[in-house]
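User: As part of a screening pipeline, I want to sanity-check one entry by hand. Below is the sequence and the SMILES for zinc ion. Please return the complex as structure tokens so I can compare it with the automated output.
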Amino acid sequence: MTEEIFPFAGQVVHLRRKRIKNMYLRVQKPDGHIEISAPLAMKRAQIEAFLLKNTGWVQRKQRAMKERAAQRALTCQYLTGQKLLVWGEACELVVRKAKGREASVCRKGDRLLLTVPDYATAEQRRDLVNGWYRQQLAAVIPKLLPRCETIVGKKAAECRIRNMKTRWGTCNVVKARVWLNLQLAKYKPEALEYVMLHELTHLWVHNHGPAFKVRMDKYCPDWRRIRKELNANADFS
Ligand SMILES: [Zn+2]
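Assistant: Here is the complex for your manual check:
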């Protein structure tokens, strides 16, 4: 496969030449650049004609991608109306102005009340909400961990909560130290249990090979479905 880049109608096109029969056009996330896969010997003129013919489709795709990015940016403001998940249930954030410098988060039914001084930044609001998620996890782990340790037959020397950007949990097998992502408080409790069982299982098997899967099937028969749902809803913010 070869890859080249060329300008077209004010845009950058990434062209990949492969052993294929037809051309394929893609608008790639997250920046919306154009990617074309084309047969090895196809002429540039033919590729450009193909692009021209599909300009409308490309523009629609790029517009939709931009709108989604704008929506995402908006939902990261931690303002009233933003939807947040708590243990798999949708809650609406309600931001209230604090009298002094106090700040607090509490859940009332399907509302998450965030009380902050009005000069609090989006980042500070997010940190408060994340701190609350951390508390939710910390409250259930003392019960859940021993239960999972019994199922797996291994004990963690330490179990900590961290805010991680790309993974649900980690396990340091040498120190038997399990770290869980605080974001897990957003999803169904079964997801937290699955991740905990997964990390503890690494104390038997370090990789994710067949031996690991055999154990997971035993400890958490539904783990494939739970993992799929969790990753489909993943929101590391
Ligand atoms: Zn793993």
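Points to compare against the pipeline: The first strand starts at residue 2 and ends at 8. Residues 198, 202, 208 surround zinc ion (CB under 6 Å).
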